[in-house]
Each structure stands twice: as structure tokens, then as C-alpha cells.
Amino acid sequence: MTTAPSAERAETAARPRRSPDVRPVSFATLTLVEWRKQLDTRAGRWLLGVIAILTAAVLAVMMAVNGGNHSFSAFLVGTATPMAMLLPIVGVLAATAEWSQRTALVTFTLEPRRTRVGLAKVVGAVGSGIALLALSVGLAALAHLVVVLFRDADPAWDVTGRAVALLVLSVVLFMAQGVGFGLLLRSTPAAIVTLLLAPTLLGVVGSLVPGMADVLPWIDLGTAGEPLLFGGDLDGAGWAHLGTASLLWVVAPLVGGLWRVRHSEISSS
Amino acid sequence: MITVEHLTKRYGPAVAVDDVSFTVEPGHVTGFLGPNGAGKSTTMRMICGLTPATSGTARVLGVPFTALANPGRRVGVLLDAGAQHAGRTGREVLTLAALMTGVDRRRIDATLDLVGLTDREAARRVGQYSLGMRQRLGLASALLGDPEVLILDEPANGLDPAGIRWMRDLLDDFARRGGTVLLSSHLLREMEAVADRIVVIGRGRIVAQGHKEELLRQAGAFVRSTDDAALAAALRQGGHGVAELATGGLSVEADPIDVGRAAAAAGVVLAELRAADSRGLEDLFLELTADDAREKVTA
After folding, report:
1. If exposure means fewest CB atoms within 10 Å of the residue's CB, which of A52, B40, B142, B280 is most exposed?
2. Each residue of A120-133: pLDDT tens digit?
3. Cβ atoms of B45 and B56 closer than 8 Å
């Protein structure tokens, strides 16, 4: 604490400026900052690192079992499960850290337009998610290349642009959902438990209540989202199911979370 | 310039801030004084647009805080030095603020120097910082955007005496260059030294405001005599408020000259007579907020 600060560097920092030529905070800047905030702490880096490691681990196991005879798309589908479990948590943390680490006070003082901050968190988290997805595609390709070269697997480079586009869509949904639950509940454990348990509970209720079987496909995002992750077919009904389930599990929590942030009091305790 | 008009905040039936009005002018350091729970922080959060006001308005540089484009470049705010991500380094905290507000990142070094944080300290995680270091980092965040206005909640909290003197010089300098400063504190001595205007708040209400000298002058005189009881009676007869101090002597709500006249008229010999000393602001503060304080204060 007691060092002699360099006087001339410090000199300029204490002068109040009278003629401000400041530009408003752009959404691109905000997004970049929110993205950086997901990466500049150990917790954030670890989470993304764990997802990458799990993805690699799944691929390694797949290369070992069944003679390693899996197509490129089979490898890619294998990486979808850890991503589906953990990507929403990236979104949750991006939102809840503002409260668990009490940074909301600073964040919303520097940018009082709170809805923009919330949306920047979604876009920043989607950025992380797409980077991880690109890594997954790359690792899956590498895994397939290895089994083709060294384990005599049949070459099947069968990942379509459409499949990748659907995975990108699922990343967007996961992140928007995670940020939404995070903004709504403001507590990391509460948001994660709700995210992981709610679909399961819904399935249990659905199997117990007669007549729910007809409703469940419309409101269960887990089932409705499967084709996105595992390369199934999406017909008109499938898209409709995905739409209504996303409305319930992604759009509603996000809108509710943004509304709550916009209208609530930001305090440090 | 900060203008607060009829600001009120209710939480259900409880009134946290009750019809508060004051202005903070450029070129001055305005102190915001009050006991814990008096509504200082709530008022400051309302000024910064973080807490919605029940009624009334607060404007900073002529507009509501939330209407400022890039407020980090106009207003430096430190509301809670502890409210930082424990896992970020001090430098990273400033880097994020610089990126957000579009400040040249080279300014980070200048600001770290200004608040007296070394490069080594800036590379450590905020979780390992002492409260004093957090205050310095918070002040660095507030100053980073080269603002015209500073809003600081208890910035001296956790600073050692040297740190408090340093902060006092910094704020003095900032105000002398035309900046506007609003700072809250319960450290009365420091407030007395650094602020030239004072706003005193108690239980959500403004109980006094004005130039420090004016407020202190009202604090009256201290007198000791050979017969305090007789002098007190004479002063009370003259309509002056008198308090007998446990340490001997009287605290009188009157100018010293009036006390002297009363003593002469009553024929009491004075041993000591002077304007209320440097504890004046503290006395004033305790007196003004006595009804609202959590502990009953015995003079």
C-alpha cells in the first residue's frame, strides 16, 4: 500500500473534465464486456474448461468402445449430452454472479439500461457456447479421423450444415434459458436446481396424471429439443412443440428475469 | 451538480427517506452525515438510479442519472467498496470498467498510481484485499472515467489515518478544479475536515444543511465559571439553551459574547469562555439526530 505513486502519471487522473465528449455504451461493447466477465475468473474458466474436458472424455470413451466404429455425426451427438447439461449453467452464472458477487451495483451504475445488460449477457453466453460447439465439432471430427485411420472404422463424414445449425439453435436456447433463470432467481444453486429438476418433475407428473400424455410434448423442452441435439427429424408438429416448449422454458423466464431486473431495486446486500 | 427534490422512499409502511431535498454544487465537497439507517445509502442509490424512488426526483448534471449516456464518464460512483467479484484482480476490475466506458486502458496505470495501489497489488485478487485496499480500488473505479461528479458512500471506511488524509487531499483537489463531490460518512472528524457543505439526515429526514461554518456557529459556546449553577440559571432566564457537561462547564446555545454579558450581569466569574471547539460538528450531529439515533446519547 505504501509506495510512492509516480506523480506525473497520477497527476492527470484527478482532474475533473468539464467538456465531456463521451459516446454512449454500445451493445457490442456491452456484449464484449459481459463475455469477458464469464472468462476472467477462475470459476468461469473452470466451468468452460470442465465442459471441454467432459466433451473430450466422452469422445475418448466412444473411440475405445465398440471398436471405435462411429460416424462423425455419432461422435458429435455424443458431445451433445455434456453440453446440454452444462451450457445453461454458463448462462446462469453469467446472471447470478452479479448478485452472488454483488457486482450488480457497479454494473448497473455504469449502464443503467438494465435490459440491454441482460441481453448482452445472453449474447455473450451464446458466444461462449458457440466457441465450445466449434470445439466439439472439431474434436468430433478429430475423433472420427483417428478411428478411421487407426481402427479401420468406416469413414462417414455425415455431419450436415443443418445439423450444425440446429446445434447452434440449441446453444442459443440453453444460454437464453440459463440467463433467464439466473436473472429471475438470482441465486446460483436455486437456478441450477430448478433448471435440472423442473423437466424431470414435469416428466414424472406427466406420467402420473392421465391426459397429460397429450399435453406433455407441447410443454416438455427436453423432449421437444431432442431433435436439435441428436439429429432427429423436425416436422411441422416438431417445430410447433419446440416453439411452445421454448416459450414456456426459455422466453418466459428470460422475459420475467429481464422484467425483474428492470423494476427491482439494486442494492449491495 | 446534483439536485435532489422531495425524494421519498417507502418500503411498505416504513419510510426510509422522507421528502429529502438538497443540492450539491460544483467546486465544493458536500458531506452527507447521519447515523446508521438514517437513509444515506438509500438516498445515494436513488440518485444513481439503482433504487426507484416512491416520489420526488434526483438529477445529476441536469438529468436523471439513468438518462446519462455512458454515466461512468460523467459521474464517478462508489457505493460499496465490498461489492466486487472476489475472484477478479484489481486490475481486471478496472479493465472491465475501462472497456465498458471506453476509457483508454493506459489510464488504468495512472488511476492505480493516483489511489496508491502498486502493480503487484493490482495483480492480486480482490478477495485478498483489505477493506482499505478495496476502498482505494473503488475510488480508482470512480475516478477512472475522468468524471465531473463524484458520489461516494463511506469512502473513508477502512482507511488508516494516512489514507484518510490522502483521500481528503484528493477530494479537495477534485473540488478545487471544479468537480462536484457528495460523500457520506459517519466519521464526523473527517467530514468536518474535508467537507465545506454539510447535509445532516436523521431517520430519513434532512435535519440540517448549509455551509459548515454556519452550522458550526449555531453550535454555541463552551463556558466554565466559578459558579456554573448560577450561570446556567442566568442563561436559562435569558432564553438560552444550557447543558451541564459531566466533565464540568456548560454547553450553551448562544454566542460567546452573550454568555459573557449574562455572566457579567449575574456577577459570575468566568474561568473559560470560547466558541464551541472542534467537536462542534459532532455535538451538532448528535444533537440533531438525537431523537433518531439508535442509542440514547448522554452528553
Report:
1. A52
2. 999 999 999 999 99
3. no
- Closest Cα in chain B to A109: B48
Of B102, B132, B149, the CB nearest to A23: B102
Residue B277: band (very low, low, confident or very high) from pLDDT cuts 50, 70, 90 = low
Go through chain A and tell me how many residues it has.
Answer: 269
Average pLDDT, chain B: 88
- All residues of chain A having their beta carbon less than 8 Å from the beta carbon of residue B99 are 29, 32-33, 36
Chain B environment of A16 (Cβ under 8 Å): 146-149, 174, 177-180
Q: Residues of A109-128 as b/e, b for ≥16 C-beta within 10 angstroms?
A: bbbbbbebbbbbbbbbbbbb
Please give the torsion angle defined by the CA atoms of residues A163, A166, A172 and A175, in that order, rounded to the nearest 10 degrees: -70
Residue B60 with chain A: CB contacts under 8 Å: none
Q: What are B169's three cell numbers?
A: 487531499
Q: How many CB pairs under 8 A join A and B?
A: 150
Residue-averaged pLDDT of chain A: 87
- Of residues B77, B80, B79, the one with CA closest to residue B61: B77
Q: Cβ contact (<8 Å) for B116 and A24?
A: no
Judged by a CB distance cut-off of 8 A, whether residue B22 touches chain A is: no
Q: B175-228 pLDDT, tens per residue? A: 999 999 999 987 777 787 788 899 988 889 998 888 887 776 655 788 999 888
Q: Is A81 within 8 Å of A230 (Cβ atoms)? A: no
Name the minimum distance, in Å, from the CA of A106 to any CA of chain B. Answer: 8
| B172/A contact by beta carbon, under 8 A | no
Going by C-alpha positions, the residue among B157, B162, B116 that lies closest to residue B136 is: B116
pTM greater than the 0.90 cutoff: no
- Asked whether B185 and B173 are in contact (CB, 8 A), the reply is no
Spell A157-191 as b/e; 16+ CB within 10 A means b: eebeeebeebbbebbbbbbbbbbbbbbbbbbbeeb
Q: Which residue of A has its CA nearest to B41?
A: A267
Q: Please, which pLDDT band fits residue A5 given cuts at 50, 70 and 90? A: very low
Average pLDDT estimate for A158-176: 91
Length of chain B: 299
